[in-house]
Q: What sequence folds into this?
């Protein structure tokens, strides 16, 4: 493979690893392995393997075999973030990109999504209050069974409604004073 491809993969690796550090994955090292398999396929002759080394190990493993759900979500988000910085993408849709994470990492993911939203419209489906609270606009999806059929409704939330929904996300059906205060704090 040419030097141009090798330089480009090094740039991408460096950028992805930098973003992973902001997502509490400073222990991880992402690597792109390009090989020529000498067989012509519908995709050409090059093979790309995405590799990861975790916990400060020097051993790299295929990404899909060695990462937890939360790690895969963060790596996917980092890659989307990098690709959106190279290309003008008008809208990015994330469906639970924050699965498998919580707490501080959820706030970091929310911040990165907010940064992406500066240059692209971001639509994010989440169950995490830390991520939902960062959104400029918050829509709530409800599913109800009516006459044996599932019906979905989507509602735009006012600030007061957001507090109630975030409190429910934090505390379940019991939205006590602590959950309401925490929801209000997340919004501020």
A:
């Amino acid at each position: 493979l040419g030097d141009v491809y090798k330089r480009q993969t090094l740039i991408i690796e460096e950028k992805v690893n930098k973003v992973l550090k902001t997502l509490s994955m400073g222990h991880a090292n992402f690597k792109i392995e390009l090989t020529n398999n000498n067989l012509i396929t519908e995709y050409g002759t090059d093979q790309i393997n995405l590799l990861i080394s975790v916990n400060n190990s020097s051993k790299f493993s295929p990404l899909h075999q060695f990462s937890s759900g939360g790690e895969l979500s963060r790596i996917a988000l980092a890659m989307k973030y990098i690709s959106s910085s190279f290309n003008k993408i008008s809208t990015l849709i994330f469906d639970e990109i924050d699965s498998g994470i919580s707490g501080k990492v959820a706030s970091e993911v929310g911040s990165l999504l907010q940064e992406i939203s500066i240059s692209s419209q971001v639509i994010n489906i989440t169950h995490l209050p830390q991520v939902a609270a960062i959104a400029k606009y918050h829509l709530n999806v409800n599913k109800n069974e009516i006459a044996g059929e599932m019906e979905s409704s989507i509602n735009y939330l006012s600030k007061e409604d957001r507090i109630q929904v975030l409190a429910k996300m934090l505390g379940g059906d019991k939205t006590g004073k602590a959950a309401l205060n925490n929801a209000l704090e997340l919004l501020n």
Notes: The chain is about 45% helix and 25% strand. The longest strand covers residues 29-41. The chain has a mean pLDDT of 89. Strands lie at 29-41, 44-53, 61-62, 91-95, 121-125, 139-146, 149-156.
